[in-house]
Write a structure and sequence with these properties.
The complex is a heterodimer of chains A (about 250) and B (about 170). Chain A is mainly β and about 250 residues long. Chain A is about 15% helix and about 40% strand. The N terminus and C terminus of chain A are likely disordered. Chain B is globular, with a radius of gyration of 15 Å. The chains are: A mainly beta (about 250), B alpha+beta (about 170).
Chain lengths: ~250, ~170
């Protein structure tokens, strides 16, 4: 009989995410909860990112990038305890982008997978995107360790670059006695698994950019820039008229 | 055969947050033969993958009536996994075809179990059993044929399950 470890959906992470002093959205992630059934143990986590437009530029999308390091990799040729992108490269329900949810409706297996299509994870006119994961490993494989590094990123469709907005880790273990342990959220100042080298190795041509490219400048900054341009223009005009008077 | 609308619909997870605190109802796994009791209209079949995963492999719910699916979800209100299920509506004969393709179900979940099959009707509630990889693969191939004939495009989730059941080392 399945045994579920039931937890209330308390938000372990609930925060505004700032880029260059501007609030680009609210990140909410549930407290990771232990999962177990007759054969498997794991962890359940869900959440969403509600983007603020502006300062996020119109057209920019929020996506999730998740890398996993585990004693028992699934759907990948990556060695144990070495980070790999989720879904793994051998998961034919994935696509050729580095994101957790698929960019297109059709996956590498040639079938439509609405359950993995990122547009189906969006709400609020595309401003909010949800996250859900429930990784599982067999008790027969104990001991098991599984750690995920999740990043919320901003991305302009059609490009092969994203900026990292937030990163954190969670995970689970199955010990020799078959007990499932959960590791709660650990927020990171910068991702450790998601590196440019690892991104390039798995998805050639993709780059990690500055998230400031995803936002519009603050009004104050724009005013200063406008004043600066105005001053330059004025100086130029004076210089030009000065030359003209000398010539005349 | 009447083709019924498409419907790989998504049940929104927002509902689950509200209901997640309620107790989980486990399906009754009685030692009797489940083979032919839950038949006919208003049957709901739910297929659940039992192997290891990274990204979730969602339960796959098949029925011939949206009302039956809604009633099933309500009846299983505490089951978080159903909140993310892929739902396919098919013609009644497609559903009967799937039901007829089911082999005898194992009562206990064993190490070799790959697929959990839940059968639900308003009258009898839910009963479930398990299939090993070879039995699951044979059943899923048959179910895919049943669905392809009655609801185009709905075999995608079955293909995922079939791919997992046929993976080297499973058979």
């Amino acid at each position: 009989m399945p045994v579920w470890h039931q937890h209330a959906m308390s938000a372990a992470v609930n925060k505004n995410v700032m880029v260059a002093g501007q609030n680009v959205g609210t990140l909410t992630l549930s407290n990771p909860a232990a999962y177990s059934d007759a054969n498997r143990g794991g962890v359940t986590v869900s959440g969403n990112f509600a983007g603020n437009y502006p300062p996020l530029k119109s057209g920019v999308e929020i996506r999730w990038v998740q890398l996993i390091s585990t004693s028992h990799p699934v759907n990948t040729a990556t060695a144990a305890n070495t980070p790999y992108f989720d879904p793994g490269e051998l998961d034919t329900t994935g696509d050729n982008d580095p994101f957790y949810w698929n960019t297109g409706l059709k996956a590498n297996d040639g079938n439509n997978h609405p359950e993995f299509f990122y547009k189906n994870k969006q709400s609020n006119s595309g401003k909010t995107i949800s996250f859900f994961d429930e990784p599982k490993r067999l008790f027969a494989d104990k001991p098991v360790s599984w750690t995920a590094e999740l990043s919320a990123v901003c991305w302009m469709p059609g490009t092969t670059q994203f900026g990292i907005l937030w990163s954190g880790t969670y995970g689970f273990t199955i010990n020799n006695a078959g007990a499932v342990g959960v590791t709660g959220w650990n927020e990171l100042a910068a991702p450790a698994y998601l590196t440019q080298a690892r991104l390039t190795a798995a998805f050639s041509g993709w780059t990690i950019g500055n998230p400031e490219h995803c936002i519009t400048p603050e009004p104050a900054s724009m005013l200063l820039a406008a004043m600066g341009l105005g001053a330059v223009g004025l100086r130029r005009r004076r210089a030009v008229s000065g030359i003209g008077s000398q010539e005349g | 055969m009447t083709a019924v609308a498409d419907s790989t619909t998504r049940i929104q997870c927002g509902v689950v947050a509200a209901i997640a605190v309620t107790a989980i109802l486990a399906c009754s796994e009685t030692p009797r033969d489940l083979s032919r009791r839950e038949t006919g209209a208003q049957l709901v079949v739910c297929l659940e993958y039992l192997g290891e995963t990274d990204r979730p492999i969602l339960p796959f719910v098949i029925s011939d009536s949206e009302a039956s699916v809604d009633a099933y979800i309500r009846d299983r209100a505490g089951d978080r996994s159903l909140a993310h299920a892929s739902v396919t509506l098919t013609a009644s004969d497609g559903l009967a075809c799937i039901r007829g393709s089911l082999p005898a179900l194992g009562q206990q979940q064993e190490r070799s179990s790959l697929l959990k099959v839940r059968l639900w009707t308003r009258e009898h509630g839910e009963h479930c059993g398990h299939l090993s990889a070879p039995d699951a693969a044979a059943f899923l191939r048959a179910a895919r044929r049943c669905l392809n004939e009655s609801s185009a495009g709905s075999g995608d989730v079955l293909n995922i399950l079939l791919g997992l059941a046929e993976r080297p080392g499973r058979q």
